[in-house]
Description:
Elements: H1 2-14, H2 21-25, H3 35-50, H4 53-65, H5 68-73, E1 88-92, E2 103-107, E3 109-111, E4 119-125, E5 128-134, E6 143-145, E7 149-155, E8 161-165, E9 174-177, E10 180-183, E11 185-191, E12 199-205, E13 211-212, E14 220-224, H6 235-240, H7 244-251, E15 259-265, E16 270-275, E17 290-291, E18 310-312, E19 318-321, H8 343-353, H9 360-367, H10 373-386, H11 394-404, H12 416-435, H13 448-458, H14 467-486, H15 495-498, E20 500-503, H16 515-518, E21 520-524, E22 539-541, E23 543-548, E24 556-559, H17 576-581
Parallel strand pairs: 8-17
Antiparallel strand pairs: 1-2, 1-19, 2-23, 3-22, 4-5, 5-6, 6-7, 7-15, 8-14, 9-10, 11-12, 13-14, 15-16, 16-18, 20-21, 23-24
Helix pairs in contact: 10-11, 10-12, 10-13, 10-14, 12-13, 12-14
Amino acid sequence: IAAYARGVNYYLETHAGALPLEFHLMNYQPRPWSVADSLVIMLSMNRTLSESWEQDLEKWRMEQEGYPERVERLFPIRSGGEITPGSNAWAVSGKRTKSGKAMLASDPHLEFTMPATWYAVQLQAPGLNVAGVTLPGVPGVLIGHNERIAWGITALEFDTQDLYFEEIDLRSGHFLFRGQELQAVKETDYIAVRGGPVQGVETWVTGHGPILSADSGRHLAMKWAAAAPGATFPIVALDRARNWGEFRRALSRFTGPGLNVLYADGDGNIGYQVAGRLPLRRSYRGDVPVEGAEGKFEWEGFIPFEQLPSFFNPESGILISANQNPFPAGTPWRVNGRFAPHYRQRQIFDRLQSRPKWDAAGMESIQTDVYSALLMLVRQEVLRVALRGPGATGQTRAAAEILRAWNGQVTAAGAAPLMAVLTYQQLRRRIAEKAAPLSGAQYAGAMAPAVVETMLRERPREWFADWDRTVAEAFSDALEEGRRMQGKRLEQWSYGRYNEVTLAHPAARSMGWLAKYFNIGPVEMGGYATTVKETTRTMGPSMRFVATAGAWDETLLTLTTGESGQVLSGHYKDQWAAYHDGRGLKFEFSKMEGQPALRLEPK
């Protein structure tokens, strides 16, 4: 990392007058790069993939105002349809591919950014030849392949953050722990403000972590696995791995964020490994804030790497991760997290089972799949009550006829996907308000789709005495919401107008009319939270990668925007059309000839 920092600073020193346009427009000269900057980037990604404390606080608030036993049903840790072990990643063995070689696909879902989150590279050095994507500012390839193996990742979503109610005096920093009065540490962060004095922000840090400014009525400290001593990111070791054993040894040193890692190699093997430091909790699950002064809710280290979920060459020839809970029901560990329900994983599995042999184009078609089994269930429930139920009207019947012709594809065009999504959201709100009347409207947990499905199938009378009426009212309110958004003519409704995406450059807001040259969008997009192509207004597949192990020149890699972060470059957003249309771009390996190439010669 230190060598990487020296390389960045050499560029800054030798190109002081030739930095990208936005630096000149903002009259900004970057300071020298440091080792800490690279570490902060890794920690920032760790935070993005593991920030669960807000869900813990949401659940606690709902329990305080409503019915705790009902609130508990809104936050399950599994949806019941997961395929053990199975953002999306999957691997298939050679017996399931046209080439006879193992294949791997990966499309991690992240917030849309401009420039793109990832930067495509091929790195060559003695004992190293690796290609794929890196995080700008961090040395090494995080998703990609070398001459022997390929790998992809998804967020594990295991809970690595806990909240503690602290008995602390914010004037002195004195806090209680197991009957003793201890002294918190005061940390001050300094924020430079253009045209004004530097601002200092003071934070007390207890033995559990920093005190948060959260609206809970009490002082909360947050404990985070990433703050434990000894964080390591063995990315280069991963890039050099030649087989499953070396690959797992590298991952055993990886401290965070928690990841699902899929693997394929040139010998036809496939594998799956959970990696990262996962808190070992014995007396509690970590799903709501706990009392810090008592000292009864402490971590007992981390789950040993050798006991994390791991699979190698399953009989099915298929391994899948789509952010689902990978821990089996009988696991000895107290498992909690923001795991995804089974919909994306099940659709990937069903697609892979639908034909005997696959190639790269077929893998891409799965990555761009927009079928939603959940919304088809909503459609089924609506059709049962909207056409002939007691609340049926001419308008609801007309809308239901549009839904009747729908096949469950959440495309940008058409009114039916919008009706289904809005109806689902109305049902979700009604169900959550039965558990927490005041804050139920804000409920949108990761498992919410599975909760709604379970409720629709089981129809518990203690929640609603008349489920048919509940569905009919949800559909009627959804139609009214749609009319407010897109007018009275149903045939002119468009899901894409509801799901518009803008990729905005962080500096564009201050550039007036120039912003249109920096940004992409707004663009109407298909996909939903329960489709393989999970796309919302703010997030979606951050890139798409498909590799055939041993035939590396056939690799496909598509970024969201382009390879260059410089707006005046022809490569600033030249991949957007391919990304939007779901077309993979060749990412050759042995034939790659970089023009120009950066060559570093030691002195």
